[in-house]
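Weekly modeling sync, notes
Attendees: S.R. (lead), two postdocs, one rotation student

Agenda item 3: backlog of single-chain predictions. S.R. asked that every request posted to the team notebook include the full sequence so nobody has to chase files. The rotation student volunteered to paste the first one in as an example of the format we agreed on. Action items at the bottom.

Example entry:
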Amino acid sequence: MKLIFLRSPLLLLSAAGIVLCPQARATQADDTSIVIINSTAGPTPFISQAHLITDNLDVIKSIQFTITPNEGSPIRPLSGTYTNAYLADRGDIIQETGDIFLPVWGLYANLSNTVTLTYYFNDGSSKQATTTITTEAFDDPCGYQDPIVLQARTNTTSLSYDYMLVKGACSEFSPAIIDTDGALRWVGNAGISNYTATFFDNAVYQVGNGALVRIDLDGTVTTLGVNADYGATFIHHNIDRGKVGVILDIDTVDQLESVNVEVDSTGRLVKSWNLAEIISDTMIAAGDDPSQFVYPSPTDWFHNNSVAYNRADDSLIVSSRENFVICIDYETGAIKWILGDTTKKWYQFPSLAQYALTLPPGSLPPIGQHAPSVTYDQGLLVFDNGQNSVVQEPPGVQRTYAAPRKYRIDLTTMTATEIWNYPQDEAIFSPFCGSVFEDAPRNYLIDYALVGGADASPPYAQLLGLDAAGEKVFYYRYVTYFCDTAFYAIPLHLENTSFPTVGPRALNLSTRGYVGTDEESLIGGFIVNGGDSHTVILRALGPSLNSSGVTQTVADPSLTVHDASGAMIATNDDWQSDPGASQIEAEGLAPSDPAESATIQTLTPGAYTFVVSGKSLMPGIGLVEVYDLSPLANSKLANLSTRGAVGTGDNVLISGFIVGDVASDTLVVRAIGPSLASSGITAPLDDPELIVFDANGSAIASNGNWQDDPSATDIMGNGLAPTNALEAATLLHLPAGAYTTIASGASAATGTGLIEFFDLEAASN
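Predicted structure, as returned to the notebook:
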């Protein structure tokens, strides 16, 4: 299990109220000339190219564009950052002349857009310039630019997402990106009219005209593969994120809508699953006749409409609209569980019924569901259309309304408990194609794709945003033909897009705690895995915490780094004495107090420990941080943990981390105490508790005894169960953002404790 960190100049500990922003000296920024020459319109009005020229390309590290939102809008500005190397690889830099052709996308159509360019330099300095890009009007065949506003975007920043990918087949400009103000910000330019699409690797992946294509946000279209490459006669319904790439729903010569394949970012076939074979083999093994349930093409016996990959237990969750939601093992295809209406045909076969999850009173099964996904807390989220089977007999229950539903799955008891649904006070009939996705905890995007059904005059598609308080933040309606206007809308994070893509990982882990001597030192451990050396900056802060309102800080922290054998490989007392002080300063990570410690080290793969102690006998509160300067190297930091004294009040153990870039990350967080006695700790924390907070200071998870956590089975399955029942652990599926974990003792107990982070997302990479 691994936890990966990226270097970032921002440390955010929301629960502790600490924000430290090291400042860098601008030198190369002063000495380098960058002039904006003009801009050139792209393939659609939403895309342009800014032409820049500089007298020194070599010192430019990256360039960021930011588009100012409409006046009065609460949305976060759309922004993209390109590294120098990325632009050079694409041919957007002419080295001989100093020309830079910077892609700018997400512009408003028919508007003079204010665009800020930020130039970042190798020495840590930066500077900005502002330009105006005027765009043409866009002839929108789908009506995205003119929604029927049921509720305009409220003037609140509490919604976790600001952009949506809306999949449609209403024009050859599909799919579309809309912001939560209802403004159209991007459309596909591959000439495809098809809603089989998704957003992956900072690009749109779409199927059309017998091929899988990639549409980069600057309008570059690349064909990745054709149907025959994947054994497909047709690719249908949705594209979903998989373990390493994206998962396609395909038809084959023998099977209609019951086969999935995964392809990587280049379009290479990675893996396939034939649900007809998986289910038939299971039925035969238990003595049932699969010919009574599984049929060859052209019978649509399964009707696969979407899938979800669950990294926590390495499984694939497949939606069969005709029958159920079925979970299979990613590697073997073995069935793990089935959730569905037991009045349907599938439940008549003991071979399948043995995998059925039981629903307690008050929980309804999904019927004709779409869009399964795994939520931040390992819940199963589906859009329940309420539509019974069309082919299988008996068809099961028919409902007159659609409802998003979230379930807690407990494989120990084989139960599925409905823990959330919407709405409580109104019923909307939308029998096909709808979706619901959770972004940050309890922030939802609901897509009613076919309100009124196909026979309505006219039918509508409706996009609804809910914040964590359950309040409607926006609600837009569009005229549709069947599901062609808004199929499976998904939330996007385009406020800080990076090129090349930075995958899900934790940034900037830090721990604040009591720093004394011996067992009361603050001790951290991590592993450098992979085949490359890795450059990190470690810091130990004390006096500068006073400016954040922390009292009784450690006056003069010192830092030592040890390898796996226990040998000391680096030490620092005052950061300016470190041999790498100038580079620490250039990276913008110089501590603000000369008594604080920092060191920069290039580490070969292996295990390392760092110890923070007080130089004098006077203890106090300190902060230890790890910054990764090699996020794209073929090696990563893993399994970071911090051990320290756990007291009460300000003396609890606090760890902060940030998940980025645009995707979600699955982590196990643990607070360990009693089992430390076996390592020679004389006064371990008897009964640790942990709480995880988001960037707004809202508690999103807590645990006192790990066996009581809803994800206990998955924690055990990943080999991360604490050895003592009193220790705490929880599994979280977290969207991008800043988080804080606080470890304390039950009933205000004190002692030595350990906070650990295990990144399951990284474990598969």
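Discussion: group reviewed the output briefly. The first helix runs from residue 28 to 31.
Action items: rotation student to repeat for the remaining queue; S.R. to check formatting next week.
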